[in-house]
Structure formats: structure tokens, C-alpha cells
Design brief:
This protein has helices spanning 5-16, 30-38, 54-59, 75-83, 90-96, 116-129, 144-148, 163-168, 187-190, 193-201, 218-226, 275-279, 286-301, 306-315, 343-350, 370-376, 390-400, 414-428, 450-467; strands spanning 22-25, 42-45, 63-65, 86-88, 106-111, 134-138, 156-160, 176-179, 210-214, 235-239, 248-252, 255-258, 273-274, 324-329, 332-336, 356-360, 380-385, 405-408, 434-437. The chain has 468 residues and is an alpha/beta fold. The N and C termini lie far apart (51 Å).
Length: 468
């Protein structure tokens, strides 16, 4: 079910194994359908892909491998449940096929509401700096089935797992796993906060070396403590932006220190990196420090040494749209954090600056934005509100930030909305402020994705400050 990049890799893998395969999707790129025809994979495309068709019943599948974007109450998956047909995702299939190359990889799994991709990329860079053959996969990067079918094999697969993937995920045995943080997100999909937490906690199951939790997020600790891990030797290791206690990785003043795997009885703990090293990545925020500490804990769980961790940090660069400085003009910084698609991510952005003109709004995904406004009202010079769900944002600002200047952008035209929002930000900002795009919402109401939204912001900034 589904014929995006990962869905195609599923169909290709199963066909290669000699399975009879039926691929179902609302749409697919022509080059994908052409290849599927060559490898004799039957396809059903269009609106009928949402329904339990006569052809599907006739096909009588023994197994369904679904894109995690399909809700469990979708017609085909509801039918599968009644028929007691197994439902997997590509991660499940990859786990069963992991030992088909000469080099069998350890898996390191990462989830969380915010910071997953950066932490996955950082951890991957740390393994690679130590001459490990490592790759980022799962919810980002290369499809995991392509990775496990690579003839050369890998030493480490660093697997990003979304809450949708974890909902469906069956049995795996990672070397180490981490939950970076837990905050309200995708509650419309999961139905409740409790269910969202439960599926996130699945990432810890059967971990062999370590379960890595966020010292500053109690829920992650509770999930680590409750996990059914591989053995009593599996460590629960915390990461923190503050001073690390025993069995923790954190910062002693400006130095990144490991008090878990080097052992708290060691007379001298090596500095793994320092804030000067982190500054090579970008703006040194608490969010960045947290991601670095989490990636370091995972790397140390697989015995990567200080030299390679420092080298990886110094040479690492963030992807675009993650607290990215676009320009500075007249003492005002213009910062793109379009990747802040939920309030938790936006909170990390807002906390990075003392005074902000906040560009906010989009699709809230059933999440209440009021606590975010209340927590950061002291930082707000002004707010520029846009997007389909802006009524909820305006109400939160009126209640919790009544003294803050608010500009509403009513246009839903993607070619105009960001131009108008940036123009308002320029008018409202004063020297020392940041005009910050941290929408706390998804982008698909007006833009293709968060990258499209961030690119529109950057283009509007460069055009308008250039004209001034």
C-alpha cells in the first residue's frame, strides 16, 4: 500500500524474493509504474485504492506491507484486521532480511517529537568519522530496504522512526535506541496523548546496549524505565544540556562530557567536544546542544571515541530550514525554522532568541498552541499570523499575549502570503530582534511542504531587504 520511494522499494524487494505482489496506491510516478510492469508487479491506482476492491479480495493477500501514512482505520487495513491478515511496514521486512549480506549492520533507532532528523544525521556522521560504514534511513535518507540490500552491507543503520511507523512496527532488536522528547503532535492521527506516548515507547523494546532518554523530559525516562529491553545489562543513559550525573551525557560548562560509558569512576573524563565546536554547526541553541548530546550518547553506546565524535561535530552542517540564519539587516536577524511544524519544535526556536517577531500558523493537526504562547509571551515583540488554522492562533494570542502587536495575513495564496508576512515582520522588527519563521504548524494548507514554505520565506526576505 503506497508507491512513494519506500513503497516502491517494498514492491521491488518482494518481487525479487519471488513473491506475487499487488501494489495499491492513489498515484505513482510513471517511471515507477513502468518498472513495476517490467518486474511483473500488478498495480491498482486511483480512488479505488482506498477501497476493498473485488480484485483485492480475489488476490487474497497473506501479507500487507503498508506505507505508515495510511491510518489503521482506513478501509483496506480495517478489512485486513477482520481477516486477520498480517500488516507490516518496510522496517519489519528489512529486519527479517537484515542478514542477507556478508556484513550485518547494527541498528540504532531514534524517535521523538522534535529533532529526529538532525540527531540521526549527527549520529551517522559520528559513526562515519570512525570509519564505520553507516547510513541514515527509515523516515529519512535512503529507503531501508535499499540499504539492507546493498551488496557491500553496512556496519550501522541509523534509523529514524516516526510515530506512524512505530504504530505498526513489530519486533526488532536495536543495538541502541533514543527518544529525544515527547510533546503533543499528530494527536488527530493517534487519537490521544497516551497512545502517542505508547507508540513512541516501542522504540526501546529489545534494545541491547542502551536506551537513551532525555533527562529534561520525564516522559522519555518513564518510557525507558518501562521498556522490555534485551537484558539486565542494557543501560538506561540520559542526555542533557546541563551537568551530567552518573550514567548521563551532558555539558560541564562549555565541554561535552560522557559520564555513562567512560564510567563515573574515571579519574579524568575526556572532553568530547565544546561549544566552539558546536558553533561550527550553526547557532548554538539549547535544542542543538540537546541533539548533539543525544547523538553522542548513541555513538558512545557503540564505543565511538572522543576524537571521532569531535571531528564529526566540527564538520557537521544542519539541513536547511532548521533555525537557519537567512540574512541580517539593520540589526535584525531573519531566521528560517520552517521545520518547526509543531509547538514543541517552535518552543525550541523561540527559546533561542530574546526578542522575536514571530511568523506563526498553518495546519495545527489538532494540537493546542495556547501553552506555547503563554510560555514565550515575554519574548514576543509581535506576531504575524497566517494559515488555515489562524483563528486558533489569534485566540491564543488574544488570551495569553494581549499586549503583543498582532498582524493577521488573510491571504491563502502561497505566492502572496509569505511576501505579506515578511513585509509585516520588517515593519514590526527593531534592532536586536529576530524575525523568526517558526510556524508551530504543518505547511500543506498553503505550501507543498515545510521546505517550500521556508524557501518562500527566504526568497521574500532577500527580495525585500535587498530593495531597502
Amino acid at each position: 500500500m503506497g508507491l512513494g520511494v519506500s513503497g516502491f522499494s517494498v514492491a521491488d524487494t518482494l518481487a525479487e524474493l519471488g513473491c506475487q505482489v499487488l501494489a495499491i496506491a492513489k498515484s505513482a510516478e510513471p517511471e515507477i509504474t513502468d518498472i513495476l510492469e517490467v518486474i511483473e508487479v500488478e498495480t491498482i491506482l486511483g480512488e479505488s485504492a482506498d477501497q476493498v476492491s473485488d480484485r483485492l479480495k480475489e488476490f487474497a493477500p497473506e501479507l500487507i506491507v503498508t506505507s505508515p501514512g495510511f491510518r489503521p482505520d482506513s478501509p483496506i487495513l480495517a478489512w485486513a484486521s477482520k481477516q486477520q491478515i498480517a500488516v507490516w511496514i518496510d522496517i519489519d521486512l528489512a529486519w527479517r532480511l537484515r542478514d542477507k549480506t556478508s556484513r550485518v549492520a547494527e541498528w540504532v533507532c531514534i524517535t521523538g517529537t522534535n529533532g529526529k532528523t538532525t540527531t540521526v544525521q549527527l549520529a551517522t556522521a559520528m559513526f562515519q568519522a570512525a570509519d564505520k560504514r553507516a547510513i541514515a534511513c527509515g523516515n529519512i535518507g535512503e529507503p531501508i530496504l535499499d540499504a539492507i540490500r546493498n551488496p557491500g552491507g553496512f556496519d550501522v543503520l541509523v534509523v529514524e522512526l516516526s510515530s506512524f511507523q512505530l504504530h505498526y512496527l513489530g519486533h526488532i532488536e536495536p543495538a541502541a535506541s533514543a527518544i529525544l522528547n515527547i510533546a503533543d503532535d499528530h494527536l488527530d492521527w493517534h487519537g490521544s496523548r497516551a497512545e502517542y506516548e505508547r507508540v513512541k515507547g516501542k522504540v526501546y523494546q529489545n534494545a541491547k546496549s542502551a536506551v537513551v532518554y532525555n533527562v529534561q523530559d520525564r516522559v522519555t525516562f518513564d518510557l525507558a524505565r518501562a521498556a522490555d529491553v534485551a537484558s539486565e545489562d542494557t543501560l538506561a543513559v540520559g542526555f542533557t544540556t546541563g551537568f551530567p550525573a552518573d550514567l548521563q551525557v551532558g555539558f560541564v560548562e562549555d565541554s561535552l562530557i560522557d559520564r555513562a560509558f567512560y564510567g563515573y569512576r574515571a579519574k579524568e573524563l575526556p572532553e568530547l567536544a565544546n561549544l566552539t565546536d558546536l558553533a561550527e554547526i550553526g547557532i548554538v541553541t539549547e535544542h542543538l546542544k540537546s541533539n548533539v548530546a543525544a547523538a553522542t550518547a548513541l555513538a558512545r553506546a557503540l564505543a565511538i571515541d572522543a576524537e571521532h565524535i569531535r571531528s564529526a561535530i566540527r564538520n557537521f552542517r544542519l539541513d536547511a530550514h532548521r533555525i537557519q540564519l537567512i540574512a541580517e539587516a539593520n540589526g535584525v536577524a531573519f531566521v528560517d525554522d520552517s521545520k518547526a511544524t509543531n509547538p514543541h519544535a517552535a518552543a525550541a526556536s523561540l527559546a533561542s532568541f530574546d526578542s522575536v517577531v514571530w511568523l506563526v500558523g498553518g495546519l495545527l493537526k489538532g494540537v493546542d498552541i495556547a501553552p506555547l504562547v503563554k510560555a514565550h509571551v515575554g519574548r514576543l515583540r509581535a506576531a504575524v499570523v497566517m494559515g488555515k488554522d489562524r483563528t486558533h492562533v489569534l485566540a491564543a494570542l488574544a488570551k495569553h499575549a494581549p499586549g503583543v502587536t498582532v498582524v493577521e495575513i488573510t491571504s491563502l495564496d502561497s505566492s502572496l502570503v509569505m511576501e505579506q508576512a515578511v513585509a509585516a515582520g520588517i515593519q514590526l522588527a527593531q534592532p536586536g530582534d529576530a524575525v523568526l519563521l517558526a510556524p508551530a504548524a504543518a505547511s500543506m494548507d498553503q505550501f507543498k511542504d515545510y521546505a517550500d514554505r521556508g524557501n518562500a520565506f527566504a526568497a521574500a526576505v532577500r527580495t525585500q531587504i535587498g530593495s531597502r
